[in-house]
Amino acid sequence: MSARETASGLRAVARCDDLGVAPYSDADDHLFRPYLGAGHAATLDRIAAWMTEAGMTARVDAAGNIVGRYEGRHSDAPVLLIGSHVDSVRDGGRYDGMLGVMLGIETVAWFAERGHRFPFAIEVIGFGDEEGSRFPVSMLTSRAVAGVLGDQDLALADAAGVGLAEALDGFGLELARFAGAARHREDVLAYVEAHIEQGPVLEAEGHALGVVSAIAAQYRFRAVVTGVAGHAGTMAMRLRRDALAAAAEMVLAVERIGGAGPEDLVATVGRMEVGPGVPNVVPGAVTFSIDVRAGVGAVRDRAADEIRVALADIAARRTVGLDLTLQQDLPATPCDSGLSRLMAEAVRDVTGAEPRVLVSGAGHDAMVMARLAPVAMLFLRCRGGVSHHPAEAVEVDDAQTALEAMTAFVTRFEHTWSDAGPALTEEER
Ligand code: GLV
Ligand code: MN
Ligand code: MN
């Protein structure tokens, strides 16, 4: 039997590659799989078939997440959740998120091929929105599962003005049921996520795998700069209140402040819309995003305060309006120490080496799921640390080692459970 027909890292990688093109992408010439798009729908059909083939029942939950369930020895057993996300950024890579979902399926397939059932169920979950590629906030669907949505989340609209209700409707889902994707705390034992590192540390230090100790705090802001539009040929330079020139200064201030802190402090303007966006009109309005992150919440908060002050100064000096709205606040999230210890032991089992422990600067569904259950994360090295880019790449051998670490983790998790009842008590959460 070829490696493609039984559980393997090769199959996980090959499936990510299969899903990297249309019809699993909404774009013909690059990968773009936003939440609730046609590519998302086609992807879920394909993943459901793979889940079924691996011995699971598959369903799409009320938030558009794909969920495969591998029953435990008893039908009402609590659940070990393994997952990541299936959406991508525009012109993204094939493995960000998807490889974790595929490795979850391979992990279940590995045990199913051996006829092994656990005293708990395993569910593999592919979150529909982690990136925030469609609506202005990210992690909408893990927040639904963790039961931590805000009221404003249900009123979101995408850049084309399509509201969440309409987008869900096109997917056969209903806004009124969206929050019903929430899981009960007592049913979920733990959430475990495998993900590419998206940074250069593992590769530089020669490790195939790493264990995540914590995930950096994030803010997402929307800035709206309002100037005065006018004729580009007749409006004197000294009379202008050019929203784009002001925004350009603001972008540089964000960059300067992000670069003035510790290495893990980062600040990014990744999206900008210019109105009216015409060559012969002085820009009258600009909207842009600001993403600020740091491993320590206080460092991020201090930088965000400095950004607020700097942008207000620029707006005042240039006599333009500035409206800065906080759209998302994800606190720094430590992974569960007990589960991370199990993951470290699993990595040691398969690599024979002391695992590299690292903080994730990238956001992950695990930071939301930590509000529901204890979480652990496994990182795989990726080529050159490149991610959110089509050049994203992983070695098949590393994916195989990751699969072995995931199966070792689940085995250790089962032993902890069997020896001492539930692996983690309510207090340990
Ligand atoms: C998701 O990939 C993020 O870190 O923004
Ligand atoms: Mn990701
Ligand atoms: Mn990503």
TrEMBL record:
Pfam families: M20_dimer, Peptidase_M20
Alphabetical keyword list: Hydrolase, Manganese, Metal-binding, Zinc
InterPro entries: Amidase_Cbmase, Bact_exopeptidase_dim_dom, Peptidase_M20, Peptidase_M20_dimer
Superkingdom per UniProt: Bacteria
SUPFAM superfamilies: Bacterial exopeptidase dimerisation domain, Zn-dependent exopeptidases
Family: Belongs to the peptidase M20 family.
Protein name (database record): Allantoate amidohydrolase
Organism encoding this protein: Gluconacetobacter tumulicola
